[in-house]
Amino acid sequence: MSESHDPQSPAQPAGPPPGTWVLGRVKGVRLTMRVTWLPVAVLLALGFSTVIGEQFPELGSWRYVASFAFVVAFTVSILIHELAHALVAMRYDIPVTEINLGFFAAGTHIEGERKTPFEEFAISIVGPLASLVVGGLAYLGSRAIDEGVGYVALFELALANLIVGVTNLLPGLPLDGGWVLRAFVWKLTGNMHTGTIAAAWAGRLIAISVLAAPVVLEEVFDRQPTLIDFVIALLVGFFLWMGSTASLMQARLRRKLPALQVRTLARRAIAVHAGTPVSEAVRLASEQRAGAVVVMDGEGRPHALVSESAVNAVAPNQRPWTTVGEVSTRIAAGHIIGVNDTGEEILTTLRKNPATEYLVLDPNGQVYGVLATADVEAAFRTR
What we know:
By secondary structure, the chain is of the alpha/beta class. It is built from 13 helices and 12 strands. The protein has helices spanning 37-55, 62-91, 117-145, 148-168, 176-189, 192-221, 227-256, 262-265, 278-287, 308-312, 324-327, 343-352, 373-382; strands at 2-5, 20-26, 29-34, 96-101, 107-110, 269-273, 292-296, 302-306, 329-330, 336-338, 357-361, 367-372. α1 crosses α2 (62-91), α2 packs parallel to α4 and α5 (176-189) crosses α6. The longest helix has 30 residues, at 62-91. It is elongated, with a radius of gyration of 27 Å.
């Protein structure tokens, strides 16, 4: 269970991804659950019911109810883990958009970057600590009961949270311990991206270690690994490798952000009225070496854009009879960007208000040009 940093990609959907249930909101944060929770919950409940059935055969079918209650309690403990991340993030005025529950790859979606290494450390460490506290309380509860189904359930809940807490403290991304390591490296080097790269490589080493675990068990502890051991090692190792690789790519991406500037990426634009034929707009753009067309309203204000794809969709012999107003796209409020915006500001606009083109205005509110999403993506690939 780890808190996730918002990936810096040009556009993301505002709603929950497919295969996700929306459960409600906690402290204003959307609470969702992966549909995979249900089959995994059933498997866990069946497994735990076997344990209870062997120790308390008199329960009969009630052991399934007790087992499912244990699974629900474990899910609540995962929520406490993730909610701890969210509350500390909000304490530092960092927006939190979603808490996603599941037995594998649960996460808290935190927007933006931490401002200091200590913020990174505090937000990351609190989740595993919350799991360890829940585990400790469950253990104390089991000692207080000391017998019966309640004892077994609380003891197993304590053990499960101990595993969650300790595992998440491993110093490699995408685990919480990886973000803790990033905070330490960031503090030592003064460079956040260096911290991410170090923690991502540590995550890859942990992934390789997990994949090798069944063989190590056999060689060192003389324990014959089972097929289940190899399957679990493969799944966990794959998850860790993919997560650390994604973090490594994100770090390299972020290093390019300061070099991205709207002023240098924007295409020069010509301004025409809605009744201008497409052929005339193309001619004017060619003469002035412009790469975009802005449509002005009757009061001389920009109100629509004409994309290159829209122009290409009009046959050459139809362009004299087709006006730019017929092929233009109205400029929405979120599709305007400042000429002095850079890196994070550009990507924030692209994520929150996805579009193929954005009107670029100078500090005086005058048209400077047009920023195309394709040009931003090309800049990432070539830098």
